Amino acid sequence: MLKDTIIKRRTVRRFTDEKMPLETLKELLMYASMAPSNANAHPVEFIVVSEKEDFTYLAAMDRFGAKHLADAPLAVLIVANKDVCKYWVQEAAMTTAYLDLLVQEEGYQAGYLPFHDNTTDKNEDAEAYVRDYFNIPDNYGTLGILSIGKKDERVRTRKEFPIDEKIHENRF
Ligand SMILES: Cc1cc2nc3c(=O)[nH]c(=O)nc-3n(C[C@H](O)[C@H](O)[C@H](O)COP(=O)(O)O)c2cc1C
Q1: Mutate to test the pocket of ligand 1, among 12, 62, 112 (most ligand atoms within 8 A of CB)
Q2: How is the chain split into domains, by residue range?
Q3: Tens-digit pLDDT string for the chain (172 aa)
Q4: 143 CA distance to ligand 1 centroid (A)?
Q5: What PANTHER family is this protein classified in (predicted)?
Q6: The whole model's pTM is what?
């Protein structure tokens, strides 16, 4: 049930060595790709990362919040073709949110790290840090990365979420 999946989903940064099978991931990516898309353009594509040396590179990007990627068993870089859709950031974000929930529903957990609009601690463009390394073409944007696996940390279950002060009826 979707509400149950949403309430149970928490960010996980430490994973066991167990890898989600590639076939399972491919199926989830297919469902995530069914997120809404302007003019049915579907500009979002994925780079599946599974090599230790690639995680070592990602974790070395010198940014607080990236170090945990060193030990991730699997991750997905979310990229999108800017030429076919000017809303690529929104498209990639919706797809990522779908994927995050699909991962949770499949019995795995995930953690997100943004590259778009983000910098390394040395103030370098975080997107540029991954573009060359992963051969991402210049006309593609990289929204971020979702690391995926079985949690190896305690995750607190969410009980309730205060919402009343965030809802404005008819006017802000
Ligand atoms: C736009 C965005 C940027 C985020 N940046 C990071 C990050 O740099 N490092 C990290 O470990 N988690 C990052 N996260 C995950 C958040 O830290 C996490 O969602 C937040 O702590 C709430 O926890 P929850 O996902 O368990 O509800 C980011 C999430 C979003 C949506």
Answers
A1: 112
A2: 2-166
A3: 999 999 999 999 999 999 999 999 999 999 999 999 999 999 999 999 999 999 999 999 877 789 999 999 999 999 999 999 999 999 999 999 999 999 999 999 999 999 999 998 889 999 999 999 999 999 999 999 999 999 999 998 888 888 999 999 999 9
A4: 13
A5: NAD(P)H NITROREDUCTASE YDGI-RELATED, NADH DEHYDROGENASE_NAD(P)H NITROREDUCTASE XCC3605-RELATED
A6: 0.96
d(CA 64, CA 69): 11
6, 7, 11, best to mutate for ligand 1 pocket (most atoms within 8 Å of CB): 11
> Which residues does 155 contact at the CB level (< 8 Å), separation at least 6?
10, 12, 109
CATH code for the domain defined by 2-166: 3.40.109.10
The closest residue, in CA terms, to atom 21 on ligand 1 is 11
What strand order describes the sheet that includes 109-114? 44-49, 74-81, 140-149, 109-114
> How is residue 55 written in tokens?
């995680």
